[in-house]
Design brief:
The longest helix is centred in the middle third of the chain and has 31 residues, at about 145-175. It contains 17 helices and no strands. By secondary structure, the protein is mainly alpha-helical. About 80% of the residues lie in helices and about 0% in strands.
C-alpha cells in the first residue's frame, strides 16, 4: 500500500517538475498548466502505476503460474511424441529463461529513449514466442534435448508478456472507467511532449555538447513516433471507419513532421537561444494538446501522405505464411509422404526458410519456395 502511494506521488511529481522547467510562461499560465497536467497524469500514468504496485504480488504469482503451465504443456507435447522425455531440460531452461529475462530487462532500462527500450523488450518477447513454437514444431522432426531447453527458456518471457497484456486490458476496461476523465483527449501525446520540452529547456546550458544534441534529437524522434501512433486517436474511431482514420492519420503525420523539423534546429544550433526556440514551440504544443486545439497544431504543419502500413505488413508476412503452409502441406503429398527422410528434411528446410524470410524478406515468394524445395530434395 505504501509503495503504491509512493509510486503514485513520484509519478505526479515527475510530471509537475517538468512543468517548472518550461520557458515562456507567466505565473498564471504555469498554474493553469500545472493543474491540467496534474489532472491528466492522475488519470493515466499515476493511477496505472498505483494499480500495478497494489497488485504486484498477484501479478508475479500469475506470471510464475502461467510459466509453469506453459512448461507443463511443452513437456506433455514432448512426451506425446516420445514415450518419455526427461523434464530436467525444461526445468533448467525455465531457470535460465528467468535469469535471461532479468538481465534483458536491466539492459533495456539502460537504453536511452523509451521507445527504443520498449522496442528491444518487444523483440526479446517476440523471439521467445518464436522459439517456443519452433521447439514444439521441430521436436517431432529433429528431437534432441535442446528443444526442451529452448521451450523452457521461452516460458517465463511469454508468461510475463501475456500477463502484462491481460493486466493492461483489465485496467483499461474495468478500473480506469471509474476514474474522472480529464478534458484532454491526447493525454499520452501531451505528456510525452511535456517531457521532451522540459529536456530541451534543461539542455540549453549544454547546447554545444554533441552528446546532449544526440540525446535531444533522439527524444524528438521518439516524440514524433508517439504523435504518429496516438494523435490519430485510433481508440476513439474504432475499426470500421477507415476513411476517418485516414484523415486523422494524415493530421498526425503533419504534426510529426513539425516535431521532426526541430531536430535540424538542434543539430545546427549556434547558441542556447536555438534550444529555447524549440522548447517554446513544444510548450505551445503542450498547451494546445491539453486544450484539444488541433487547429493550432496544424497551422504551420506541412502536407503529408500516409503510408499504407497494413499493405506493407501483409507484403512482409505473406511470404512467411506461404513457406509455413508449404512446410505443412508438401510433406503430405503422396510421392513425398512415403519417404520419411525427404519429408522431414523438407519440413525442417521450409521452417528455417520461413524464419529467415521474416528476418530478411525478399519480394519473389514463388522463387524462394522453389529454391527451398530444390534444396530439400535429395540430388540423384
Amino acid at each position: 500500500m505504501l509503495s503504491a502511494i509512493a509510486a503514485y506521488r513520484r509519478t505526479v511529481n515527475e510530471e509537475l517538475s517538468a512543468v517548472e522547467a518550461l520557458p515562456g510562461l507567466d505565473p498564471v499560465e504555469r498554474y493553469r498548466l500545472r493543474k491540467d497536467v496534474r489532472r491528466s497524469v492522475c488519470f493515466s500514468r499515476a493511477s496505472y502505476r498505483y494499480f500495478l504496485h497494489r497488485k504486484m504480488n498477484l501479478i508475479l504469482f500469475c506470471c510464475f503460474f502461467l510459466a509453469f503451465l506453459l512448461g507443463l504443456l511443452a513437456q506433455v507435447w514432448f512426451d506425446r511424441e516420445n514415450s518419455f522425455v526427461d523434464p530436467s531440460g525444461t526445468v533448467v531452461g525455465g531457470v535460465f529463461g528467468l535469469l535471461s529475462f532479468s538481465i534483458v530487462m536491466q539492459v533495456t532500462r539502460r537504453i536511452k529513449g523509451k521507445r527504443r527500450s520498449a522496442t528491444a523488450a518487444r523483440i526479446f518477447v517476440l523471439l521467445s514466442f518464436v522459439a517456443y513454437i519452433s521447439s514444439l514444431v521441430v521436436y517431432p522432426v529433429a528431437g534432441g534435448a535442446w528443444s526442451t531447453f529452448v521451450a523452457g527458456v521461452a516460458t517465463f518471457p511469454m508468461a510475463v508478456s501475456l500477463v502484462s497484456r491481460a493486466v493492461f486490458v483489465f485496467y483499461r476496461h474495468i478500473v480506469r472507467v471509474r476514474l474522472v476523465r480529464p478534458d484532454c483527449i491526447n493525454i499520452s501525446v501531451a505528456l510525452a511532449m511535456l517531457q521532451t520540452a522540459a529536456l530541451v529547456s534543461e539542455s540549453q546550458s549544454e547546447w554545444n555538447h554533441p552528446k546532449v544534441s544526440r540525446r535531444v534529437v533522439m527524444e524528438l524522434e521518439d516524440l514524433a513516433r508517439t504523435v504518429e501512433s496516438n494523435f490519430s486517436l485510433p481508440y476513439r474511431i474504432g475499426r470500421w471507419n477507415p476513411e476517418l482514420f485516414s484523415q486523422t492519420s494524415v493530421e498526425a503525420l503533419r504534426v510529426a513532421h513539425v516535431v521532426r523539423r526541430h531536430k535540424k534546429v538542434i543539430v545546427c544550433a549556434s547558441s542556447a537561444s536555438d534550444f529555447e526556440k524549440v522548447a517554446l514551440s513544444l510548450t505551445s504544443g503542450v498547451q494546445a494538446l491539453l486544450s484539444n486545439d488541433r487547429a493550432k497544431l496544424l497551422e504551420s504543419a506541412p502536407d503529408a501522405v500516409r503510408k499504407e502500413r497494413v499493405r506493407m505488413i501483409i507484403k512482409h508476412v505473406f511470404p512467411v505464411i506461404l513457406l509455413i503452409a508449404a512446410a505443412i502441406i508438401l510433406p503430405l503429398v503422396p510421392p513425398i509422404s512415403g519417404q520419411e527422410k525427404i519429408a522431414d528434411s523438407m519440413r525442417l528446410t521450409f521452417i528455417v526458410a520461413a524464419v529467415l524470410a521474416l528476418v530478411a524478406p525478399r519480394n519473389d515468394s514463388s522463387t524462394r519456395i522453389l529454391d527451398t524445395l530444390g534444396k530439400a530434395m535429395p540430388s540423384k
